[in-house]
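ARCHIVE CARD
Drawer: 12
Card no.: 0347
Subject: one protein chain, sequence and derived structure
Cross-reference: see card 0346
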Amino acid sequence: MDKRTDILVIGAGPAGIISAVTARKYYPDKKITVLKSIKNGVIPCGIPYMFSSLKNPEDNKLGTESLEKNNIEVVVGEAVKINRSEKTIETKDSDKYLYEKLILAVGSDSIVPGIPGIDKKGIYAIYKDMDYLKRLIEEVKKGKDILVLGGGFIGIEFADEISRIEGRNVHLAEVLPNLLANSFDKEFSVFVEERLKAKGVDILTNNRVTEFLGDGKVEGVRFENGREIKVDSVILGIGAIPSTKLAQDAGLDLGKGKGIWVDEYMRTVDPDIFAVGDCAGKRDFYTRRDAPVMLASTATAEARIAGANLYQLKVVRENKGTIAIYSTYIDGLVLGSAGLTENSAKKEGFEVVVGNTEGVDKHPKNLPGVNKIKVKLIFSKQSGILMGGQVAGGMSAGEMINIIGLGIQQRISAIELETLQMATHPYLTSAPTMYPIVLAAQAVSDKM
């Protein structure tokens, strides 16, 4: 017999959970069901830290308590077909669900490159499945020589975490000239490269893997420049692509960036089907082009919009696009980026001016635990509007990039940032006379 629900959410990651909880808030009388394909999910951002920082990998479990607490039904099953005319979902186990409104929060699929030998044992893609990840960690820890493929955020975090395990040789390979090259300018990438090298990580930038060596199991890697290194295991940290097969098979449109096309309110071309999170297309804040940004913070913002607007447009929204705001932590070093880098702004043809400042994150500078801090802000030369920023320093940098992100969203000017009012304290912030964001804004005044 077909199972009936009012609101059906496919996916129980951050986007799916927040969609359902928000829908409950706005539509208290509706029956809400969440269909999850993985029995034991994980917190996506915490996956690298299951190797070392978390003493028990189970501590990274993504539970469904918030759903059950809100009287939301949770079912384990994999959706394989959407019938839009009947408004039904079929699962792999031949169950059928009827819905009034459907939210696709099906996430993304790990990129597995077509490199010869990629199918050998010991080469691991990253899946958000607790049982799979526990086996992966157990197997990787048995070896001594580990290669992490990909120098983006997840790649550097894996390299940092695995290097904490005694007796491991960690190699980190990236085809671009620098780590984090898509989110930071070179002078910030250098910080993380130096930090990882100091921990003994072998960084292999500007080089491409051409073959994985070994019989049944990976035993080595050959690079484009001819170098070969011995490895016991390989972790693929080269990113992901939107999971769209379910949507495509149902005739839903994709954007040029290959995510599911959605409007300002996360509606697909079918007014009763919404898409949120990694599977949904993103548009750049400045150019409106499709942007390959996959962040839990973005996903949950989209989920709140979709959950509120399922039956009526309750939350009027101007979709300004994604500002691609990131932060990461590597052995005490915090890096944050939001908006355009100087390099990406110039590639897009924007005429920009740049303000830089360096200082410390406490005052006076001889307080215990003080860290150096560097801030770089990118402004439009003609309008003086903030277009991007980067921060490197201690823990305070993690929230400082959020200030910059808000400034970008509100199109704040350099003049306004010069008069920024901020709370300061010797142990918590830089001195009010030397606040880095203010100084970086002041540094561009004479250039505009």
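Annotation on reverse: The chain has a mean pLDDT of 94. Residues 15 and 301 are 8 Å apart (CA to CA).
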